[in-house]
Amino acid sequence: MSNGIDLLEPRKKATPPSAPVPPEPTEDAGSQALSEALRSSFVIVKVVLVIMVLVFLAQGFFVVQPQEKAVILRLGNPVSKGGKVLLEPGAHWAFPYPIDEVVRIPVGQVQTIRSTVGWYRTTAAMEAAGTLPPAPESLNPAQEGYVLTADGNIIHVKGELRYRIAEPGLDYKFLFADASNAVLNAFNNALIYASATYTADDALSRDVGGFRERVRLQLERTIAEQKLGIAVDQIDVQASAPLKLRQAFAAVSEAEARRGKTLLDARSAANQALSQAQGEAAIRIAAGESDKTRMEQFVKAEANRFSSLLPEYRKNPALFRNLRQSEALQRIFANPQVEKFMVPTRGGNPREIRIQLNREPEKLKTLEPPKGDAH
Amino acid sequence: MKRNPITITIGVLLLFIFGLLLIFFQVRTTEVAMVTTFGKPTRPVTEPGAYLKWPWPIQQVYKFDKRIHNFESKFEQVFTADGHSLMIKIYAGWHIAQPQAFFPRFGDSVTRLEDALSGLARSAYSGVVGTHSFSDFVSTDEKQLKFEQIEQEILQHLQKDVQAKGYGVEVNFIGIKRIGLPESVTKLVFERMQAERQLQVQRIESEGRREASDIRTAANLTSAKVLAEADNEAARIRGEGDKLAAASLQVLDQEPELGKFLIQLRALEDFLKDRTTLILDTQTSPLNLLNGSPSSSTTTRSGPKVSSNVQE
Questions:
Q1: Which of B147, B182, B238 shows the shortest C-beta gap to A291?
Q2: Average pLDDT, stretch A270-284?
Q3: Do A119 and A183 reside in the same domain of the chain?
Q4: Cα four-point dihedral sign A346, A348, A349, A355
Q5: Domain-located, residue B17
Q6: pLDDT of the residue at B157
Q7: Same domain membership, residue B74 and residue B169
């Protein structure tokens, strides 16, 4: 306890003068008061010290938020409890610094980065307004971003990557000084690589999905190779023709659209022709059918007539013929549609006749008595 | 005094802690450290943990971030093996591996190291690019494309150089960040692209026309075929009718003469159904009757509607 006395320097100083008490009694009272004061202040100091120790210990409590995990570094080394390094969300305790240090890792929180190394020079205001910067005649590499495509063309490409730190997330935090920058560079690289394998037309319009997939594949490969420790959530890739060639590219799409329309027209005309032909075919077949029926009916009728006339004919064929012939001629001559001319003979020789083969117009049909001009 | 044990303990503890702070230092898992004795580097520390040292001013500790740092080269023009000029920019991930080698050269300045790296990187990529042709960088054929191989070669080149220099640094990876063309070349590329687009427009249009005419031709062909088939079918059906008719006509075999006569008669009547001009010789039966007794017969035969004038 002698050490303790050493610490209480003021009190020690106060006691020696108490031996020669008589000369200054007031001083003794004063020193007593001082001693009292010191004693009480010492109590205060003790309380403060205890509070400080409590605060010191209480500082060891910390809360891990739901969207993060944490790691305790004890004397610089990650502490693992039962093989687990990551602390789950909730309340935890660690020794205060410098023994322990709590490192929070935002595992699961989606982070977004944008790659614009391949994009033309523009401003945020222009982007917001949707206006394009003036089209340069050539691209100054210091100012304009672009990529080279597989067919040696130039296009602009930009992308947005959403990713999360994959568990355990220690690499992301402890392996990289600036992990998000490393991720961005991996993304830039993937865009450059994908462009180098795609033709301008494919990347711009024909195979946009495939292009994006190529970017993703390359990015995943780099993530694995460089141990970036992230999981890709979503990739958006946007490609644009050089500003100066936008019109030329638009002309190509217009030509494509026109071709589409021409083909559509041709197809509809073809369909129409085909359905017309099918209709016509049906008509022709139907005509065949009706001819067949008519023929059948006719022959049947003829056969019936024959059968019914046969007995009569057999009685006297010559008379039958004459009778029938005359009947028929009568019907023919009675038909007003038939004009008849008779060429009389002279001395048994038929006379020469000349026929002008020029049919009279239809209207003559209406004339009641057909004119007979025989010559 | 008797009431001081707590006080004393706390005091000793504080002293102890203070003393510890003077002689201990801590290296985090992300760090490496260099201990200097009177300014001279004496002891590198590469593993995390707590270590002892003599208090200042005897020994001093310099700590370095040993995590992977990002380095980016300039965007520079280099030449390919086949004489194209290409602009290239690479990025690299590097970290401090040996503080004892790093510290004497660069102190604790990362910038100074990056300047040094910049030169090494330039020699690495210009060397590697010079051994490849332009088509190794961009190609639709993945077999021909040597993009990743080139990156690998640059990395090896750079790693070798950095190791040879003994900077105490290791390069973890490199990647191509940008590839471009010199500004004057971009203009030519634009012109070529423009011409290509125009050709493309022409090709698309002529292709469209050709395809359309192909479609029309094919349709016409199909239509003709459909009609021809229909005609065939109709002929077949008619043939069927004829066959059936032939079967019915067998009845006529009983008296062919009568059959022939009846059919002739029917045919004659059918033939003369419509507007017809008939020129008859008076020799023809039954007009030959006229030759016998002219006037009476004419009137009876022709009836009221027939008027025939015979002129001499």
A1: B238
A2: 92
A3: yes
A4: positive
A5: yes
A6: 93
A7: yes
